[in-house]
Amino acid sequence: xxxxxxxxxxxxxxxxxxxxxxxxxxxxxxxxxxxxxxxxxxxxxxxxxxxxxxxxxxxxxxxxxxxxxxxxxxxxxxxxxxxxxxxxxxxxxxxxxxxxxxxxxxxxxxxxxxxxxxxxxxxxxxxxxxxxxxxxxxxxxxxxxxxxxxxxxxxxxxxxxxxxxxxxxxxxxxxxxxxxxxxxxxxxxxxxxxxxxxxxxxxxxxxxxxxxxxxxxxxxxxxxxxxxxxxxxxxxxxxxxxxxxxxxxxxxxxxxx
Length: 257
Known about the structure:
Elements: H1 11-26, H2 31-36, H3 44-60, E1 66-70, H4 76-88, E2 97-101, H5 134-147, E3 157-161, H6 166-174, E4 180-185, H7 190-200, E5 209-212, H8 221-231, E6 238-239, E7 248-251
Parallel strand pairs: 1-2, 1-4, 2-3, 4-5
Antiparallel strand pairs: 5-7, 6-7
Helix pairs in contact: 3-4, 7-8
């Protein structure tokens, strides 16, 4: 909820978020018991994100290539891809999952990112959503997940630390073999989103999926502008699921030249 506009929630939802952490911590169950009963403790909003990402992941199972995730923050999308890959394709050791983040918060916010809807939003400023020690914490989480993954001794997830889009440029220069099956954009900002879209175009194929978290949102107008400028409206056909309004995606069919 901390990443959302609190005005979007009714009073009962505010009460739920205020009380659910205490309920989780005070519950008598062990960690394993709580996790197997996770639906007691996880907000429906978080479950809807997981279900939507599951639907998207299933579409790339027959598509060769890697997953690149831009702006991973605390790892919600990155670890979803990690877990789903272990479940659906346990022996696909060629599917790499690369997460990109500086963990220093938002980079510069440009004029294309501003709108009246988000002018007073507290997260909409340079350095917001910083995650100090994030790279180390997420890397430890990856190692733990690998203990419970088929072929866990073969590295699948890598976290590329650095300011975007520079870190993306660096990774692709060092890995010219990269083919992209899925690219996830969680940046919300115009400049890095546009630069990354332009850079990854040569790595896309027909059937690649581009997933966005802030399209058509007045709070974050830059992401929409970046997509249309790079691909052109005539090459964009966005899809969504009815239960998770923030996520939308397109399957690449043209506009790669």
